[in-house]
Design goal:
With 726 residues, the chain is an alpha+beta fold. The protein has 22 helices and 15 strands. It starts with a helix and ends with a helix. InterPro entries: SecD, SecD/SecF_arch_bac, SecD/SecF_bac, SecD_SecF_C, SecD_SecF_C_bact, SecDF_P1_head, SecF_bac.
């Protein structure tokens, strides 16, 4: 008994330890929050122009896209998710922008570029030096471990062309060496033991994991259709100033304090415990980003603030369940025990569906999507660990103290008047349709603008001396051209030459007259004079492959949700419940899209990030409702029968408190971020937080008002259809 009373103190020491670890780190291997790798928008970075070597003329579009994909894979392998990789169509160059390392002090572009690895051409050759297979035919290379010997190996996967060439080569070289070359340097010389068909092979004989990983990375980095080199690199300025970072840090503190006040005022003692748990969760979340050095951008900080709101979700469900048990007359200890037990299925189902979405994003994602998937996945795991286990560990300990086991320290749930959304669903559906029609009409009138990330665009480079006010320049260029413009400054570290870089979205190019107007406009802003030095067109920063993978990931996520609910909620005729849940999610995604149209926000990767956030967030609400419907169906089987509408309305009434409170805590966090972005004119955060705030409100609405009533309509339609057939 006494040991359990002391659990709260062990937990407090553990939380304090992780808080110190998060702030200060522990040597070079465990980096704290002060040593995180910040994105280009916060700290600036490097711009490098890679040029093909030994190629006559401009490489083909297919070759350039292959080179671009290799560059992005290399950056993903280094956890550099804040980057821009695009193609200069006219010259055949790859332009890469990426942030500094966390420990970079001298800001040396040449040293930073070495992080990208070798860019030589990979070939497989026989002992006489004849090229048998080229690197561009290697689809992937990864490190595996032989289950029989325990040794690390490098696994190769070839495309269809490479598979045929490799099969023929290995058939002719059985018992001989096959050299793997990076340009003219041999990086491996494995012995061919047998003919290999099927497009897969392994290279063994590795001393350890590090050697295998180094070889695998070289093969991936060399899977280019040609060699590439760079002699043109610059230091680039942050897209946002230090004021923006300070504003977001302040927003974080304000958001956390507001959530703490909200939780304690509503749930009292369980609210205090959930706030301590929240600190633990945030420490783990930050360490999950800082230790592997995932790039943290300002939208990433906004995402962390959002996770503050979502992190209390499990504790709200649990606290609501404890309140229900107290209402039935249970003792404090019994209510806490039953509360955790009854809440677990909702928490588990909600987190498992979200975790699956995150895994799909990590498999298919690159750049921002990969980063989001990783952050979402770690957040889910941490929520299950800290949100459930840690809070229970502390609450069950603290209620063993007499002063903490009084009912006034808990919130007893009150009887709520029945909410009849399912019964009045025609009016709900009519209201929903009106909102969507109005949003669609305004969006159609305004039109939807795509940012440079999706459309590509034109880059104007100016030389200048003195200081450049990038915000004023951006406003002036926008006024002249009427299209999205991003502005950055760069500096050649060797010569000190400064350049102003304007990237104009859209694939329509720019006329000489418009170039002249822009130049005249920005030269009138101050004494600083800008001279146009270079103009060229670039491909979209988000390539066709990345865009296709984003759509595929979202589609697979929706399919998984349908299948998971189908299997887990058989008592709800799972397929209809799954389709209804996805229809509610589709409502949220459409509404978020309309926000971009109504407020004339150019669609960029923020839309993808917001969409994925809302999918993960909204499905949690729907799962909680379905879990309560399932529970009430079981009770109904042993008691008085009620209509389907009445059962769903009762389930909505019982869970609406949790849904609204979760939405309020999350909305508080996002609203704080939005307010700070408006006050400090942080455009990249505004275009992220405004649609996200609408999406959170929509997610709560669709889960409560759309998913359940839509399922009732489906069930009643099927019932009438069966009756007609009979």
């Amino acid at each position: 008994m006494k040991d359990k009373k002391n659990h709260i103190w062990f937990a407090m020491i553990l939380i304090a330890g992780f808080l110190l670890l998060t702030i200060f780190g522990a040597g070079s291997d465990v980096k704290g929050i002060r040593d995180m790798r910040f994105g280009i928008d916060i700290r600036g970075g490097v711009e490098a122009v890679f040029e093909p070597v030994g190629v006559t003329g401009v490489p083909s579009e297919k070759q350039m896209e292959a080179a671009r994909n290799v560059m992005e894979s290399r950056l993903d392998a280094q956890n550099i998710t804040d980057r821009e990789v695009t193609v200069d169509k006219s010259e055949g160059h790859i332009i890469v922008r990426f942030p500094w390392k966390s420990d970079e002090k001298e800001f040396n572009p040449e040293q930073a570029i070495s992080e990208l690895g070798e860019t030589a051409k990979l070939t497989f050759r026989d002992p006489q030096g004849n090229v048998l297979v080229e690197g561009q035919n290697v689809a992937d290379s990864s490190v595996t471990r032989n289950t029989q010997t325990g040794e690390y190996e490098v696994e190769l996967q070839f495309d269809s062309t490479g598979a045929k060439a490799f099969a023929k080569a290995t058939q002719n070289l059985v018992g001989q060496q096959m050299g793997i070359y990076m340009d003219e340097q041999m990086i491996s010389n494995p012995k061919v033991k047998q003919a290999i068909s099927g497009g897969q092979a392994v290279i063994n004989g590795m001393a350890d994991y590090e050697e295998a990983k180094a070889l695998s990375d070289k093969i991936n980095s060399g899977a280019l259709p040609f060699s590439m080199e760079t002699s043109n690199y610059n230091t680039i300025s942050p897209t946002l100033g230090s004021q923006a970072l300070k504003a977001m840090v302040t927003a974080s503190i304000v958001a956390i304090l507001l959530v703490i006040i909200f939780m304690i005022s509503i749930y009292r003692l369980p609210g205090v415990i959930s706030c301590l748990t929240l600190v633990f969760q945030m420490c783990l979340q930050i360490l999950a980003l800082s230790i592997p050095q995932y790039t943290l951008t300002l939208p990433g900080i906004a995402g962390l603030i959002l996770s503050v709101g979502m992190a209390v979700d499990a504790n709200i469900i649990i606290s609501e369940r404890i309140g229900e048990e107290l209402k039935t007359g249970s003792s404090i200890r019994s209510a806490v025990k039953k509360g955790y037990h009854n809440a677990f299925s909702s928490v588990l189902d909600g987190n498992l569906t979200t975790a699956a979405v995150a895994v799909i994003l990590m498999i298919f994602g690159s750049g921002t999507m990969l980063s989001f998937g990783y952050t979402l996945f770690t957040g889910v795991i941490i929520n299950l660990l800290a949100g459930v286990w840690m809070s229970r560990f502390m609450l069950e300990s603290v209620i063993r103290y007499d002063k903490c086991s009084k009912e006034k320290l808990f919130r007893k749930k009150k009887e709520r008047k029945m909410i009849r959304f399912a019964e009045k669903r025609k009016w709900v559906f009519l209201f929903t349709a009106c909102v969507l029609l109005i949003g669609g009409a305004i969006t159609a009138v305004n039109g939807v603008k795509l940012d440079t990330q999706f459309t590509g665009g034109v880059v104007l480079k100016y030389t200048y001396t003195g200081d450049a006010d990038t915000e004023k320049i951006k406003e002036s260029a926008n006024k002249v051209l009427g299209r999205p413009v991003s502005v950055q400054t760069s500096e050649d570290s060797a010569t000190g030459d400064k350049k102003l870089v304007l990237t104009l979205a859209g694939n329509e190019g720019i006329s000489p007259d418009d170039q002249k107007k822009v130049s005249e406009e920005i030269n009138q802003l101050s004494d600083t004079q800008y001279e146009l030095s270079e103009t060229f067109a670039v491909e979209p920063y988000i390539g066709a492959k990345a865009l296709k993978n984003s759509v595929l990931a979202i589609a697979l996520s929706a399919l998984f949700i349908i299948v998971y609910i189908w299997v887990r909620f058989q008592s709800l005729s799972g397929l209809s419940a799954g389709v209804s849940a996805v229809a509610a999610l589709l409502h949220d995604v459409i509404l978020v899209f309309f926000v971009f149209g109504v407020f004339r926000i150019p669609v960029n990767d923020a839309f993808v990030a917001v969409t994925l956030t809302i999918i993960g967030y909204s499905i949690n609400d729907t799962i909680v409702l379905y879990d309560r419907i399932r529970e009430n169906i079981k009770k109904q089987n042993t008691g008085k029968k009620e209509s389907l509408c009445a059962l769903v309305d009762r389930s909505i009434t019982e869970t609406i408190g949790r849904s609204v409170k979760t939405a309020v805590t999350t909305a508080i966090c996002v609203a704080v971020v939005l307010v700070f972005s408006l006050v400090y004119h942080i455009e990249s955060i505004r275009v992220f937080s405004l649609p996200l705030l609408v999406g959170i409100i929509s997610g709560c609405y669709s889960s409560v008002c759309v998913a359940g009533p839509l399922w009732v309509s489906w069930k009643e339609f099927r019932s009438r259809a069966k009756s007609t057939v009979k």
